[in-house]
């Protein structure tokens, strides 16, 4: 008897079909991968199983019986647990309180007993947790453990994990896989959602591949090549490999010198002695798990947050205290992580969103807007960067993630920046758009622009960066040419272990010399 | 089980954003009719008395103009603030301060003669309102105090200040101890358009403000920055717009406009200082700004409607002996219905096929 | 200062603070669930008007209290329907509720202006009220004062050690996550808003049946707004609401103090005091932005509708 069986599941949203006639079967104890690129409908399907989203058509069988999951509480009663991509945790509550909320009343009666159980279960599965800590003080990896332990506390028969590895260091991924194997040995089925093929091949027994909301194939990942898997995900007409030549930069454009910064925001990360240089004509990649200071660092580069004058330099001009618009005049282009609600105003048209950062050129004169030029600018971005939109009057929020990202990057590139800072350039973007975006970044580099890319996607960083480093807990690892850094080395850096490096650091004497950067909370992660 | 649900539109509906105020007005009329009916009135006659009778002669229209001018001025200022998502509820206080400040100068200049008196009084009124706005801006930008609460508090303080004035130092010594000031001199009184009516030139102030702010919001970078700040603070910061300066600008502009409205009211149709110089124009202007879709032209129409609710309230009091507070009731209803109808801008109502109900009956967990 | 006067001032402070406590506790629960209801003033006025009307019509002040609570709840249902079900802008909807409530209460109460009723009598607690000074200050009040203490204790306990309190906080911090773990977000928010409405209605009844047993248009005089500021001042903590409300109570009866000390001052200028104090308090709280951020419910004012 199968643990779960989905038949003919269909879910439509206005303007798109998220799932069409999807069939999926998972046996007890099986680790089943659900593969597909961004926007293929994986998350929607999982939310349907978990009862967060109701399907328009189709049926679901649980241990042989047909059921309708009424909601997440019902799902958990049945023994379905889910670990979300964006964690469903409450930052101002403690670990124990978070877990208590998701358990049935009777089981959470005594917080003390619960704490005891949390400690036992988390130790059994090798994921140490302190139930008394507040969630906002935990690292991303630890927060994920809270989510998993939360599921394990209730006799879970099917555990769904939505892109669980995208927020982990390579070493943390290994730990997670051990836990998952242990669970599957105990008879728990696992649905593992991913778009990372190597991981799926390493972990999963079976795979179902989704493409544009439909099942495009089934396979046994261990017996299938990465190439074949990729073809099932993206179809035949998309190029799979991108091979970019590494470049060596010319003179330094951006340099940051011994920058330390503590934000007013109690949830923010404190930056410690960061020094780096980005040269014209090179791409520097910064790897790292989200929440380790990337956002704070980028805000200090963009001018949305300011520091002492002599900490940030654009072509030897000290700019640390300058506002964003002054830095833009000096040649800064910036693509923030949040597309809607920072990079673009959701309710405004593409035309207005072009003006958002383009206002300094000839789009305005003496404070008056030249509407025809603004329109032409928006039109040019749409054409040059192949943005699919209803026109320049379309609201930014009506565009897909990929198209909006193309528009934002296009807007910055067309202003001929001397330094382009790009945060998570292809996060949540479909493969076609991702390839176009990476291609444009390389082109920009070859034209002599200094490019700084921050990303959680290690594969992407290896593919486009000329030099690479990692950020952990507000400190920067040594910087080195990309081919000199092994993936294992980068993983250690991402976890804050800057000491054990195989190569010599080339620019970053400050953080290399004051080495013991290990945070006790990080140690448990390894 | 309800088979009607809301579905988010991929893109906001422009049509609905224009239709929504009309729906709201319609619903208000229907509810008003029902209300009148329950009060034992003939609903059609009562609605006629409230909404149409006031406008059946030239006098009625000029009186409408008398009320449209301050409402439009306040609402234009509020619109700037609301566009920037600065929830300035303080037009009422700025209006009162404008009246008080301008009125104070007018009382000091009771003996003065010359064409310079009126502009000076108006300028002082506008400046007083501006200062009251500046106080809010200072509290907001320097101390980060919530502007909704500070402006409300400043409204109460302004009202008490006015009361203090007319009960104390500004009281007319020959006024039989009524809480009123002396009447202003002719040189400190706004000229009327025709001697037969009360309508004065403040209606032109309102029209100039409409034109100026329309140009500001549609043609200038400053207007664009205000709109971006309101829509999305992070984007404004990302683009390098100066948040604090924009906040100062909108609050000062609103203060000056509401102050001008206040001083125009006391030097126009009121002619002195008394405790009742504002029948709540500053609050009604909030409704005007929303109902007018934060657009200058819409605001002119919305001002007319709200002005009508004041006249209708008076009319209903006289002809139907209903309480005057009917005005506030209609205004509140209007805003409620508007906010409800605005849902249709970003959502649409869809009927879900009843299929779900059938499949859930096969649920063994329920059996 | 003479001792009698001092006792009287403390007694009056507690009375004046009581409506603020009731409103602020209700609003605090509402805000903890992530809903900002700026309509307090309108709900208080409706409670005051309907409470008074019911008391006059039935001749029972107790029925007046029930009517006031129901009036506050009905107003809050209106708010909840717009702000929760129809995901309208909470700020605008709250303002609308205030404008509507002010108008409707004035309309309904128009025929009752100037009437006098007996109001609710004080209920000195046996024995305790005989203690010198403390007996008068703490134990000679009307029942609603004691009830405000009871509600304080209840809410304090609820957020300190119950699952309900945890659930409300969770909804107010991250409604998406709450929905994902199966908490009925809409229901929790409706409940919190209704509770806030009931408390505001009760505060209204306190004003028109106890504090000054009469009805006049706009009689709450901004107490709904001051209570909103109080919630911020209290960093969403019940014990600080209690403290803050009594501080404000003291500020609003300054004229008593000054008269007692033999000063003459314009009543209009003195009436500014609580409003000015509110502004000062707002400045003081806002000056510690980091702390404010930690205590503010993260999803406050953000409409939420589960995707289905």
Instruction: Pick out the low-confidence regions of chain C.
Output: none
Helix content of chain C: over 70%
Mean pLDDT of chain C: 89
Assign the CATH class of chain B: Mainly Alpha
Q: From the alpha-carbon coordinates, what is the Rg of chain C to the nearest angstrom?
A: 19 Å
Indicate the proportion of strand residues of chain C: under 5%
What ranges of chain B have pLDDT less than 50 throughout 5 or more consecutive residues? Answer: 354-367
Q: What is the makeup of the main sheet of chain C?
A: none
Between the first and last Cα atoms of chain C, what is the distance in angstroms? 66 Å
Query: Structural class from helices and strands of chain B?
Result: mainly alpha
Can you walk me through this structure?
The complex is a heterotrimer of chains A (526), B (367) and C (308). Chain A has 18 helices and 23 strands. Chain A is of the alpha/beta class and 526 residues long. Chain A has 3 domains: 4-234, 3-Layer(aba) Sandwich (Rossmann fold); 241-331 and 416-526, 3-Layer(aba) Sandwich (Rossmann fold), CATH 3.40.50.300; 344-415, no CATH class. By secondary structure, chain B is mainly α. Chain B has a single domain, classed as Orthogonal Bundle (ABC transporter involved in vitamin B12 uptake, BtuC). In chain B, 69% of the residues lie in helices and 3% in strands. Chain B contains 15 helices and 2 strands. A two-stranded antiparallel sheet of chain B has the order 1-2. In chain B, helix 5 (117-141) packs antiparallel against helix 10 (243-270). By secondary structure, chain C is mostly helical. Chain C has one domain (3-114, 122-295): ABC transporter involved in vitamin B12 uptake, BtuC, CATH 1.10.3470. Chain C is 72% helix and 0% strand. Chain C has 15 helices and no strands. In chain C, helix 1 (3-32) packs across helix 11, helix 2 packs across helix 10 and helix 11 runs antiparallel to helix 14. The longest helix of chain C has 30 residues, at 3-32. Chains in contact: A-B, A-C, B-C. Chains B and C meet through helix 6, helix 11 and helix 13 of B and helix 4, helix 10, helix 13 and helix 14 of C.
């Amino acid at each position: 008897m199968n643990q779960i069986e989905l038949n003919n599941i269909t879910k439509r949203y206005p303007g798109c079909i998220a799932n069409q006639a999807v069939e999926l079967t998972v046996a007890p104890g099986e680790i089943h991968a659900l593969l597909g690129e961004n926007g293929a409908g994986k998350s929607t399907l999982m939310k349907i199983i978990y009862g967060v989203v109701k399907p328009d058509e189709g049926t679901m069988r649980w241990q042989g019986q047909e059921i309708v999951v009424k909601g997440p509480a019902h799902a958990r009663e049945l023994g379905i647990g889910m670990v979300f991509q964006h964690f469903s945790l409450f930052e101002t509550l403690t670990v124990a309180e978070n877990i208590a909320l998701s358990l049935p009343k009777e089981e959470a009666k005594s917080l003390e007993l619960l704490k005891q159980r949390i400690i036992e279960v988390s130790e059994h599965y090798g994921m140490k947790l302190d139930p008394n800590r507040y969630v906002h003080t935990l690292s991303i990896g630890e927060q994920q453990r809270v989510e998993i332990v939360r599921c394990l506390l209730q006799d879970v028969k099917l555990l769904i994990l939505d892109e669980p590895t995208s927020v982990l260091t390579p070493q943390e991924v290994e730990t997670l896989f051990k836990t998952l194997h242990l669970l599957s040995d105990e008879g728990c089925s696992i649905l593992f959602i991913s778009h990372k093929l190597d991981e799926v091949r390493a972990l999963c027994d079976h795979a179902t591949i989704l493409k544009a909301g439909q099942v495009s194939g089934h396979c046994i990942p261990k017996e299938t090549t990465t190439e074949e898997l990729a073809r099932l995900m993206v179809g035949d007409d998309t190029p799979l490999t991108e091979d970019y030549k590494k470049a060596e930069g010319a003179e330094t454009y951006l340099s940051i010198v011994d920058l330390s910064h503590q934000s007013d925001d109690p949830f923010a990360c404190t930056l410690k002695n960061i020094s780096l240089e980005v040269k014209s004509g090179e791409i520097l990649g910064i790897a790292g798990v989200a929440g380790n200071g990337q956002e704070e660092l980028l805000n200090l580069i963009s001018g949305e947050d300011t520091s002492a004058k002599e900490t940030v330099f654009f072509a030897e001009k000290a700019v640390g205290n300058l506002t964003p618009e002054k830095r833009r005049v000096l040649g800064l282009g910036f693509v923030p992580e949040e597309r809607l609600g920072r990079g673009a105003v959701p309710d405004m048209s593409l035309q207005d969103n072009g003006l958002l950062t383009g206002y300094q050129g000839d789009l305005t004169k003496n404070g008056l807007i030249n509407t025809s030029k603004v329109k032409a600018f928006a039109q040019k971005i749409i054409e040059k960067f192949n943005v699919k939109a209803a026109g320049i009057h379309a609201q930014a929020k009506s565009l897909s993630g990929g198209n909006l990202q193309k528009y934002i990057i296009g807007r910055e590139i067309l202003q001929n920046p001397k330094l382009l800072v790009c945060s998570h350039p292809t996060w949540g973007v479909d493969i076609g758009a991702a390839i176009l975006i990476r291609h444009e970044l390389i082109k920009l580099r070859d034209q002599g622009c200094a490019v700084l890319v921050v990303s959680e996607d290690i594969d992407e960083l290896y593919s486009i960066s000329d030099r690479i480093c990692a950020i952990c807990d507000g400190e920067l690892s040594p910087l080195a040419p990309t081919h000199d850094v092994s993936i294992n080395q980068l993983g250690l850096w991402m976890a804050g272990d800057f000491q054990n490096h195989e190569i010599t650091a080339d620019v970053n004497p400050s953080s290399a010399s004051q080495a013991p950067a290990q945070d006790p909370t990080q140690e448990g992660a390894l | 089980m309800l088979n009607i649900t809301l579905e988010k539109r991929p893109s906001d509906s422009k049509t609905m954003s224009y239709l929504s105020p009309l729906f709201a007005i319609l619903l208000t009329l229907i509810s008003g009719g029902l209300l009148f009916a329950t009060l034992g009135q003939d609903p059609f006659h009562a609605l006629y008395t409230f909404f149409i009778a006031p406008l059946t002669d030239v006098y009625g229209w000029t009186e409408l103009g008398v009320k449209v001018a301050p409402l439009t001025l306040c609402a234009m200022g509020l619109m700037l603030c609301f566009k920037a998502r600065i929830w300035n509820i303080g037009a009422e206080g700025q209006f009162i301060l404008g009246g008080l400040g301008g009125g104070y100068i007018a009382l000091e200049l009771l003996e003065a003669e010359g064409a310079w008196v009126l502009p000076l009084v108006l300028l002082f009124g506008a400046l007083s309102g501006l200062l009251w706005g500046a106080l809010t801006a200072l509290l907001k930008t320097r101390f980060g105090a919530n502007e909704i609460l500070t402006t409300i508090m400043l409204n109460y303080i302004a009202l008490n200040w006015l009361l203090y004035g007319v009960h104390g130092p500004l009281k007319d010594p020959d006024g039989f101890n009524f809480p009123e000031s002396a009447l202003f001199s002719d040189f400190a009184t706004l000229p009327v358009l025709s001697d037969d009516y009360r309508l004065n030139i403040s209606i032109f102030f309102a029209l100039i403000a409409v034109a100026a702010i329309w140009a500001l919001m549609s043609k200038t970078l400053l207007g664009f920055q205000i709109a971006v700040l309101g829509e999305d603070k992070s984007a404004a910061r990302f683009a390098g717009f100066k948040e604090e300066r924009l906040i100062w600008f909108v609050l000062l502009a609103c203060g000056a406009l509401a102050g001008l409205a206040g001083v125009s009211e006391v030097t126009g149709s009121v002619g002195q200082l008394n405790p009742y110089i504002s029948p709540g124009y500053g609050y009604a202007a909030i409704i005007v700004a929303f109902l007018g879709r934060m657009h200058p032209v819409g605001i002119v129409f919305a001002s007319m409607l709200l002005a009508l609710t004041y006249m209708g309230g008076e009319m209903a009091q006289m002809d139907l002996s209903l309480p005057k507070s009917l005005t506030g009731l209609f205004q509140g209803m209007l805003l409620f219905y508007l906010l409800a109808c605005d849902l249709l801008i970003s959502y649409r109502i869809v009927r879900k096929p009843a299929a779900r109900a059938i499949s859930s009956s096969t649920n063994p967990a329920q059996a | 200062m003479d001792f009698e006067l001092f006792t009287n001032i403390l007694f009056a402070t507690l009375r004046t603070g009581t409506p603020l406590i009731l409103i602020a506790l209700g609003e605090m629960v509402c805000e903890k669930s992530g809903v900002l209801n700026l309509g307090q003033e309108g709900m208080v006025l409706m409670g005051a008007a309907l409470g008074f009307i019911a008391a006059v019509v039935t001749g029972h002040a107790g029925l007046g209290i029930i009517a006031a609570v129901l009036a506050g709840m009905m107003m809050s249902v209106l708010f909840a329907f717009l702000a929760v079900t129809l995901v309208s802008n909470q700020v605008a909807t709250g303002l609308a509720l205030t404008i509507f409530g002010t108008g409707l209460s004035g309309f309904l109460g128009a025929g009752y202006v100037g009437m006098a009723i007996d109001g609710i009598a004080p209920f000195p607690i046996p024995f305790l009220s005989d203690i010198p000074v403390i007996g008068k200050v703490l134990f000679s009040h009307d029942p609603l004062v004691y009830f405000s203490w009871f509600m304080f204790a209840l809410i304090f306990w609820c957020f300190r050690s119950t699952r309900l309190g945890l659930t409300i906080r969770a909804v107010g911090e991250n409604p998406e996550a709450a929905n994902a773990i199966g908490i009925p977000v809409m229901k929790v928010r409706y409940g919190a808003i209704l509770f806030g409405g009931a408390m505001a209605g009760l505060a209204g009844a306190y004003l028109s049946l106890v504090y000054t047993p009469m009805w006049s248009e706009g009689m709450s005089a901004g107490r709904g707004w001051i209570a909103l500021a109080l919630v911020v001042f209290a960093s969403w903590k019940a014990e600080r609401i209690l403290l803050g409300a009594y501080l404000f109570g003291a500020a609003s009866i300054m004229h008593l103090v000054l008269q007692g000390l033999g000063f003459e001052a314009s009543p209009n200028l003195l009436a500014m005091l609580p409003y000015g104090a509110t502004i000062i308090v707002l400045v003081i709280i806002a000056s510690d932005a980091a702390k404010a951020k930690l205590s503010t419910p993260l999803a406050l004012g953000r409409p939420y509708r589960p995707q289905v």
